[in-house]
Design brief:
The complex is a heterodimer of chains A (176) and B (150). By secondary structure, chain A is mostly helical. Chain A folds into two domains: 1-86, Rna Polymerase Sigma Factor, Chain: A (Orthogonal Bundle); 98-176, Orthogonal Bundle (Arc Repressor Mutant, subunit A). Chain A contains nine helices and no strands. Chain A has helices spanning 3-11, 15-37, 40-57, 67-86, 88-96, 114-124, 127-137, 143-150, 154-172. In chain A, helix 3 (40-57) crosses helix 4. The radius of gyration of chain A is 18 Å and the shape is elongated. Chain A starts with a helix and ends with a helix. Chain B has 150 residues and is mainly alpha-helical. Among the domains of chain B are: 6-51, no CATH class; 92-149. Chain B is 77% helix and 0% strand. In chain B, helix 1 crosses helix 3 (33-51) and helix 4 (61-72) runs antiparallel to helix 5. The longest helix of chain B has 31 residues, at 119-149. Chain B is elongated and about 85 Å long. Chain B starts with 5 loop residues before the first helix and ends with a helix. The chains are: A mainly alpha (176), B mainly alpha (150). The interface between A and B is large, with 44 and 39 residues.
């Protein structure tokens, strides 16, 4: 069943179509949420919340953007909500600052696995820098697609991506 | 130290540079060691993030659907729910393995009980079934232990 038809049938309340939709997009939602949240439990919760939100608001999806872009937006918003709930103080600090944390307690990177070191470094990025970085490097979205998904100008995408890369490089350079 | 071409290097590596600017950026890259280093570092980051493992979710697509159907009260029929539950159940490795072993044993027993098979073949099949059963039980135990540890 193609996506258009599947969405139509979901809108009509077809349970089987919902079954197909959830099966098709569960992995996508979970993986994106995991990259943004860096925790399996939080990613599962956020992916569940996102699919529930899709169920509740699919009737308002008019197809101005692609379904995937709309879904990206929902998953990202659910992850943001999850981050705010889990660490409200960090979020406020990030929103007030320039997006990069000033004082970082550096762990012993030489003793860490590469994946753990990268995980730690990604956690040091503000949510807005991490989101742009993940959408580009993991999801492979173009600047224009990221701009459309997040509703920000392309210039902002570019500068956030550059800041994210520079911050990560500064944090991890020692073990490159 | 900072090079004014730094941002352009990002666009170059992301394939976001128009053709007329690309050539200039590539020429600059050959001349500027700072930008070459930046590009190399950013490429390492790209490789790392692509190789970062993502742990499998505890819920399968079926499990996620069942959870959604109960929290959103989806209008699904009994048979559909049953199918989803069955698929979710079968997706678990221990269950799938047990089912495969059971089916294999049943087929072997069925073959062994054929009256027109020669006696030595029947005996050989019985032996095979017994060995297979013992081995699979041992394998199952270790699989069970492994999934329990996880």
């Amino acid at each position: 069943m193609d996506e258009e038809r599947l969405l139509d049938r979901c809108r009509q309340g077809d349970g089987y179509a919902w079954h197909q939709l959830v099966r098709s997009y569960w992995g996508f939602c979970y993986r994106l949420a995991y990259h943004l949240l860096r925790s399996r439990e939080d990613a599962e919760d956020a992916a569940q919340d996102a699919l529930l939100q899709v169920y509740r608001s699919l009737s308002s999806f008019r197809g101005e953007s692609s379904f995937r872009t709309w879904l990206y937006r929902i998953v990202i918003n659910c992850c943001r909500a999850k981050m705010r709930r889990s660490s409200p103080l960090t979020q406020v600090a990030n929103e007030e600052g320039n997006g990069e944390q000033e004082l970082v307690e550096q762990p012993d990177l030489d003793r860490m696995e590469k994946a753990d070191a990268l995980n730690w470094a990604l956690n040091q990025l503000s949510e807005e820098l991490r989101t742009v970085f993940i959408l580009r490097e993991v999801e492979g979205l173009t600047y224009s697609e990221i701009s459309q998904t997040l509703g920000i100008p392309i210039g902002t995408v570019e500068s956030r991506l550059h800041r994210a890369r520079k911050t990560l490089r500064d944090l991890l350079k020692r073990i490159f | 130290m900072k090079c004014p071409w730094e941002m352009t290097i990002n666009r170059l590596m992301d394939d976001e540079l128009p053709d007329q600017l690309r050539e200039g950026a590539e020429v600059h890259l050959k001349e500027c060691p700072l930008c070459r280093e930046t590009l190399a570092d950013f490429m390492i980051l790209r490789e790392w993030i692509k190789k970062t493992p993502v742990p499998e979710p505890r819920l399968s697509g079926e499990g996620a659907f069942l959870k959604l159907s109960s929290s959103a009260r989806l209008p699904i029929g009994f048979l559909q729910k049953l199918r989803a539950e069955l698929e979710e159940w079968i997706a678990r490795p221990v269950v799938a393995f047990r089912m495969a072993v059971t089916v294999a044993l049943m087929v072997a027993l069925l073959l062994a009980s054929q009256p027109d098979l020669p006696a030595n073949l029947t005996q050989a099949l019985h032996d095979k079934v017994r060995t297979f059963s013992e081995r699979s039980e041992a394998l199952f135990q270790s699989l069970h232990l492994f999934s329990g540890q996880r």
